[in-house]
Amino acid sequence: MKRLFGAATLAAAIVASPHVRAEENPSFWNLKPADLRTLVAAPQVMVTRTASGIDAYCRCPVVLKPHEIPEVMKKAIIAVEDKRYLDHGGVDLIALAAILRGGFSRGGSTIPMQLLKNLVLHDLQGRDFISKIERKGSEVWHAGSFDGAVGKQELLAAYLNQIEFGGREIVGLYRASRHYFRKEPRDLNLYEAALLAGMVQAPARLNPLKETTRERAHARARLVLGLMVEQGLIKEAEKKRAESTGIRPGLLAPFKIQAQAFTEWVVQSFAAEHVKDGETIRFFVTLEPRHQRLAETHLAGLVREGAVPDAYEAGAVMMTPEGRVQAMVGSVDWSKRQFNNAVKAKVQPGSTAKLPLLVAACEAGLSTESRITDEPVTGSWPSNGALGYAGTTTLREAFASSRNAAAVRLAQSLGPRKVAEASRRLGVDPGPDPDAGFVLGSYTTTVTAMTAAYAAVANGGFRVEPTAVLAVVDGRGVVRANFLETARTRAIPQRCVEPVRSVLGDVVRSGTGQGAALKGWKAYGKTGTTTGNADAWFVGWSEGRVLGVWMGRRRDAAGEAVAGRGAPAEYFRRVATSTNAMAEYRVAQERSGGRAPTATASARRPAEEAAPQRAERRAPAATAESRTRPNPAPQAERRPAPSREAARRLTDWDLWPDLAPPRAAEREFRREAPPPRVTERRRPAPPPRDAWGYDPWLDEAWEEDFVEEFDRLW
Question: How many other CB atoms are there within 10 angstroms of residue 452's CB atom?
Fold first, then answer.
């Protein structure tokens, strides 16, 4: 009778699943395979409309590609969650038989079914019988096509990226590894992988950091190891070795970002149209948490150094050339001022407003070497500042040096209306009937709009509409809006794209934007500074990432002034250097099959900035001497160490630790042969870390406080 009831409920679940209802909008699982692969690897903003207002938060996992996930982690999760994952086509018929024997409480869900439940079917996760029937039917019916469209390896990676390991802040394997073990996923040992895999069942009850749940978590980890042995994924000797090794915590801080400004923008742009009362809607978004972390950290660094005075606020946006926003910084310190300067602040753009003038000049037939007049129009207006007036100069030099007089005279000769029309095509409206002076940035716009205008040059001349959302999906899998494919409208004639790029490249190479120049990569952009240094800008791009930053003085605030060629250009340089290096390393790692490249990932970077090969790293010797000073590499292999300031600017392993040399072997060495404790508590100040080489903080002397803390924890 029990089996008959199980069969009946399973059949009812399939019949009741959403596939039988004709819907106006497509379902999540009916999207194109390429679109599905994009969405399962995307963060989401969850928006709920209640009687008291809107609640929203970002599920922001750091997405790992299949080759970036260690094999021990893949084996552990398969062993405990879906042992026939590699053999079935999305639905495990043998596991489903458990439902016939014991009903829904017996499980039977495969990894594709669980991913559908957690990523799409959040409205059907109630405990009532009807919700269970409908959800299980949807999972069974669609898991097969979902599995085939996404692919085994990509789907397994998506599952590990999207699963929650302990609430909203610990989504995905990467953030779990950083939170629980203070290390990169690639450094996880077998026991740690088993512990994380065991947590998936109930993260709150299996938390290894809490005293009340620690023993339960370790018991679950041993169970996972036993399952791995039974299924032939590891040997008994490996299991015993893993149990004796246990947890080996690293030194990295938990990965955290401040995505409130981005989340607020999503809510204000889309919630009114797509979220009804009582609903929870999932917005798949374009945010890239790694880039967000870099954008936040480098701004904080400039503030800490005093490059951004206390009197200034800031806003920054990073987007792809197609307009997908990957990072957004709303203010210098969101905890103190919750105002999104990147979207809401209407500010004067300064000389960044000269971009439409350059486009209009090309459209009128002028070349970059055409001669133009650089003389004041009336009296001493407009002023070129310390540059003075050249009389006549080339179009290229006038833009590179940001000659205001030449810009206004050129706008007069072309006609302000034609220049204004070019500006509107780029998405920046200077007003209904501007005069020629608007090319100096006398109107107001936003950081997001101005960054999108420059993105149009980066993408080959097509207008950009900045977007944060890829798709809008409700709690039953219905796609309410799809922004994965967008129409393209040409804003800049094809023949003008390269001349405009060439001039913007000269701005960085030899003009006012030299502070934004990169070593090893091309960069393009424009500085901007308004009267009295009230606003300072840099907008540009490098390697397919467009970054706009504005720093503005608060009203009636006194203090040191900032110009576009200063802190904004430096901010662009730091962020672009970090993102480019990280991207190149990840590409090189993928080409090497997931192994860290033996050569520098950034092949075009100068040798003095190249990351060292793995072979150059050695475990520190367990001697008293090694406890008091770094253990340098052989002198012949070492480059001169840069200054502390240069080292901090070049890299920070905590920003993208994938670039850091492996630390697991060093930690294992220290655990196996721990040096004696130093009785003298005083220690010398740490020397500056080598920008791409030896990190003295890895030496045991500088690690002492960390070791004591983790000894206490574990």
Answer: 26
Per-residue pLDDT, 557 = 82
Can you tell me the distance from the alpha carbon of 249 to that of 334, in angstroms, rounded to the nearest whole number?
A: 31
pLDDT tens digits, 253-268: 999 999 999 999 999 9
Higher pLDDT, 641 or 543: 543
223: left (phi over 0), alpha (psi -120 to 50) or beta: alpha
In the chain, domain spans: 61-245, 607-713
The whole-number average pLDDT for the span 436-440 is 96
Strands (E), 334-468: 371-374, 391-394
CA distance 497 to 491: 10
Half-sphere exposure of 367 (CA within 13 A, CB side): 2
**The 44-50 sheet, strands edge to edge:** 53-59, 44-50, 280-285, 469-473, 479-482
At 208, give phi and psi (nearest 5°). Answer: -75, -10
Q: Average model confidence (pLDDT) for the chain?
A: 83
Is the previous residue joined to 382 through a cis bond, with omega within 30 degrees of 0?
Answer: yes
Q: Would you say 345 and 339 are in contact if contact means Cβ atoms under 8 Å apart?
A: yes
Model confidence, pTM: 0.82
Tokens of 553: 């003085």
Could you give phi then psi for residue 193, rounded to 5 degrees? -65, -40
**CATH T-level topology, domain 61-245:** Penicillin binding protein transpeptidase fold (1.10.3810)
With beta carbons less than 8 A apart as the criterion, state whether 554 and 588 touch. no
